[in-house]
Predict the structure of D-alanyl-D-alanine dipeptidase.
Amino acid sequence: MKPYHQIPIAECGEPLIKIPLELFAVESPHPYEKLGAPYGEHSPYYLRQSAIANLIQAQNYLHLLLPDWRIQIFDAYRPVAVQEFMVNYSFAEAVQQRGLNEVELSPNQRQEIWELVYEIWAVPSLDIQTPPPHSTGAAVDVTLVNDTGQIVNMGSPIDELSERSHPDYYANSSHPQAQEYHAYRQLLRDVMLKAGFQRNPKEWWHFSFGDQMWAWLNNQVNPADFFTACYGRII
Ligand SMILES: C[C@@H](N)C(=O)N[C@H](C)C(=O)O
Ligand SMILES: [Zn+2]
């Protein structure tokens, strides 16, 4: 259980609708579909109606600062079966990157790698009180594309299992491009938060509106108010 799972969910019933992809840049092919993630009849390019309105608003804010830049959508709606697939995929990838063999892992090695995976991935829970954020249609993973159509270098790829994923990793780093990476991460954060989203404290690319993590983060900033989640799991 993460602390945000304590937040009550009062499902508001707002529909999950297709993101108007023509307004945004889009990672293509979709990073998890290309791995064979089991979407069935679902599509990753869906979000709750208000989350879409806010995403459009975030890009409008970006355009006031940088008219030809765009928000690039990496991932949005994710059925629990896909969450499970990606968690297992990330575990297997981490094992392989360490030159290990999954069947020969010691219990300690296994636990260490699972802990690393769950640093950035939510548990594929089917409990309606603890839905994975993307399974609610409230969460979106995004980055920026500049005026020449290039993906902006944020200093680490989306979904990397490392501390470089932490939003402020480059704030006090001696890396020669640290200031640039941090400034771009801040720019993405600023436009998204101005539009009502909250950012996952462990991932520079993950934002949500209306889910448990969003409510919990709002409550950290404004302890006098008590936000609850209005979006629970869909399907
Ligand atoms: C790992 C990343 N793509 C992501 O979405 N992480 C959050 C926490 C999630 O799994 O919901
Ligand atoms: Zn995410």
User: Anything to note?
Assistant: The first strand starts at residue 16 and ends at 18. The pocket of LVM2DEV6 (ligand 1) is lined by residues 120-122, 132-134, 139, 141, 159, 200, 203, 206 (CB under 6 Å). The helical segments are 49-65, 80-97, 107-120, 178-194, 212-221.
